[in-house]
Amino acid sequence: MQNDEIIWQVINHHHCSFKAKTQVQNFCRNEYNVTGLCNRSSCPLANSRYATIKEENGKCYLYMKTVERAHTPKNLWQKIKLKKNYAQALEQLDSHLQYWPKFLVHKNKQRLTKITQYLIRMRKLQLKARPELVTMPARTEKREKRRMEKAEVAARLDRAIEGELLKRLQAGTYGDIYNFPLKQYEKVLDTQEVEEEEEAEDADAYVEGDEDEDEEDEEIEYLDDDQVDLGSDENEPYDLEDIAESEDEGEEDDEDDEEG
Predict the structure, then answer these.
(1) Closest CA to 100 of 76, 64, 69, 46
(2) Nearest to 168 by CA among 178, 155, 183, 153
(3) Three-class SS of residue 102?
(4) Which stretch of 39-48, 151-160, 169-178, 246-255 has the lowest confidence by average pLDDT?
(5) Which residue has the higher pLDDT, 129 or 151?
(6) Crossing angle (nearest 10°) for helices 86-96 and 102-127
(7) Nearest to 188 by CA among 162, 156, 153, 158
């Protein structure tokens, strides 16, 4: 026959493999302990009538132990699955622990509340996207750092080559020689072609503007006979004989001036 008081005296005053002693108080490592504390009312070994709640794979189960099954250790604990709904699970606890000590009923309800709360938090955390921390070996980091430094040096060298090629092409240093680096040369040529195309577009726009002005200057107007006054002296044609006589008179005047 099982005597709970004798078992507790042995556990409390002698050795217990589940007891964890601290400066504040003693704790219990037994998986069936409903509070986690080492005391007379919470010890699952020293109580022949005991109940607790456990969580397995996101589901809650009620475990109950009675003295009638103490002679068969494999059937000592009765396992009852609780519903996912919190209110319905509390109703199950009230129905199964109806005539049990109020201490056990209260502690099991507290344990069910805590387990339900952390299961809800777990589901929320699973829905959130969290960064995954990946360890990087020190050798890999050093190797990647050296590669980045080499890549930066190569990039600076390429830019320096491109700038020097551009200067020499503009100065006409090479002439007809084209045996310098092909990649940088093609890039420089592309930039040169773009600049030449822009200059050609500007020149075409300037020439078109000049042609428009010339066309405006060369406009010719035709007048009718009524608009022209043919009777005035200004509009009469010059006579060739009068022009010749005026030239002869001018020569004779010059000769007289020389003789005088």
Answers:
(1) 64
(2) 178
(3) helix
(4) 246-255
(5) 151
(6) 160
(7) 162
Residue type, 245: E
CA geometry: angle at 26 spanning 21 and 29, to 5°?
Answer: 85
Task: Give the β-pairing of 59-65 and 77-81.
Answer: antiparallel
pLDDT digits (tens, 9 = 90+) for 100-109: 999 999 999 9
Q: 194 or 61: whose pLDDT is higher?
A: 61
Helix or strand (DSSP H, E) at 21: strand 19-21
The one-letter code for the residue type at 64 is: M
Kindly report, residue by residue over 171-211, the tens digit of the pLDDT: 766 665 555 556 666 776 677 676 666 666 666 655 454 44
* Structure tokens, 213: 């002005």
- Tokens for 214, please give them: 């010339």
- Count CB-CB contacts under 10 A for residue 146: 10
Can you tell me the distance from the alpha carbon of 106 to that of 91, in angstroms, rounded to the nearest whole number? 13
Q: Are 63 and 79 in contact (CB under 8 A)?
A: yes
DSSP secondary structure string for all residues of 152-193: HHHHHHHHHHHHHHHHHHHHT-STT---S-HHHHHHHHHHHH
C-beta separation of 110 from 102 below 8 A: no
